[in-house]
Amino acid sequence: MGLFEGMEGLGLSGLNEMNVIDKPHTADINKENAAALLERKEEDYIFDKKYQCPVCDLGFTSKCVKTGKLKKQKNDTDLRPIYDFMDPLKYDVVSCEYCGYSSLARYYGRLSNHQIMELKNKVGKGFKGLEDKEGAYSYDDAILRHKLALICSVVKKAKNGERAYTALKTAWVIRGKRLSNDENAPENKALYNDEMECLKNAYDGFMLAISSEPFPIAGMDENTLKYIMADIARKLKKYEESARLIGSVITSKSTNKRLKDEALNLKELIKQDIANSR
Ligand SMILES: [Zn+2]
Predict the structure, then answer these.
(1) What is the rounded CA–CA span in Å between residue 76 and residue 82?
(2) Digits of tens for pLDDT over the chain (278 positions)?
(3) Ligand 1 centroid, distance to 233 Cα (angstroms)
(4) Helices (DSSP H) in the chain: which residue ranges?
(5) 111 C-alpha to center of ligand 1: Å?
(6) Distance from residue 4's CA to the centre of ligand 1 (Å)
(7) Is the peptide bond before 216 cis (omega within 30 degrees of 0)?
(8) Which of 3, 4, 223, 271 is most buried, by the most CB atoms less than 10 A from its CB?
(9) How far is CA 240 from the centre of its chain?
């Protein structure tokens, strides 16, 4: 799999064959505001938070976003939030710079002794360390940390819901980078392919999770998760599954009005995509 190519430089090897999800046994930076954005500094919106690594026991700091200071503009169709000035999604992963243990902040630190051993042996051993970054993360810094979190979720045999959500968030930062690039940037195609690979893993993992894990999954209720899965399925051109999922969101009595409106919009998009694919 190409997603983890280049991670060898960190001292992690043998990852090419790594699958994020085990098989079961059977838009855009707003260009108009670009000038205004330059006056505000991303650094002013982040701070260093102290952590104690449960794997290597060393203390480190990880960058966090000052919540409440940013205004959300809109969501992508798969609910990736877009903010008016910076992309706070870049900071959703906590990474130990010494041993590489990483996870989305919501899952950080809840480890069994066995998981700690596995992370020590398969990630920490030989890990060359992460650069302690001054200032804001670039998209590459963020993508690297998200990929580390994805690797750690597999190594510690996290539930499919966690693996899938980590893959989804990785897809979102990769998309963030692609959309912040010049439209014709040569790397955009590779970024798009990586995003699709992450979305496929997210879809497969969520599909397993909804049949085996209690809701909320990754903090999402059933309708929200099925809505996101319907849009991922659309992007993956799995139109039948996409239509089935969005149908169940629309007809569910527990879907709130806002999500139902989004779901009706998505249903139209699915119809258009199906028509265009013929
Ligand atoms: Zn550590």
Answers:
(1) 7
(2) 478 888 888 888 777 778 888 877 654 555 555 665 557 889 999 999 999 999 999 999 999 999 888 999 999 999 999 998 899 999 999 999 999 999 999 999 989 999 999 999 999 998 999 987 789 999 999 999 999 999 999 999 999 999 999 999 999 999 999 999 999 999 999 999 999 999 999 999 999 999 999 999 999 999 999 999 999 999 999 999 999 999 999 999 999 999 999 999 999 999 999 999 98
(3) 36
(4) 34-39, 113-119, 139-155, 160-180, 188-212, 222-235, 239-251, 257-277
(5) 13
(6) 20
(7) yes
(8) 3
(9) 25
CA nearest neighbour of 132 among 157, 106, 95: 95
DSSP H or E run through 46:
strand 46-52
Q: How many residues does the chain have?
A: 278
- Please give the structure tokens belonging to residue 232: 């991922």
- Expressed in angstroms and rounded, the spacing between residue 127 Cα and the centre of ligand 1 is 10
Q: How far is the CA of 101 from the centre of ligand 1 (A)?
A: 5
Residue type present at position 211: S
Query: What's the rounded Cα separation, in Å, for the pair 174 and 140?
Result: 9
Report the distance separating Cα 31 and Cα 17, nearest Å: 39
Q: CA 242, CA 237: separation in Å to the nearest integer?
A: 8
* Nearby residues of 115 by Cβ (< 8 Å), 6 or more positions away: 156, 157
- How many whole angstroms from 121 Cα to the centroid of ligand 1? 12
pLDDT at 35: 61
Report the alpha-carbon distance of residue 129 to residue 141 in Å, rounded.
13
Which residues on adjacent β-strands are paired with residue 49? 62
Q: Report residue 120 as tokens.
A: 């020590």
Query: What distance in Å separates the CA atoms of residue 124 and residue 55, rounded to the nearest whole number?
Result: 8
Sign of CA dihedral 227, 240, 209, 142: negative
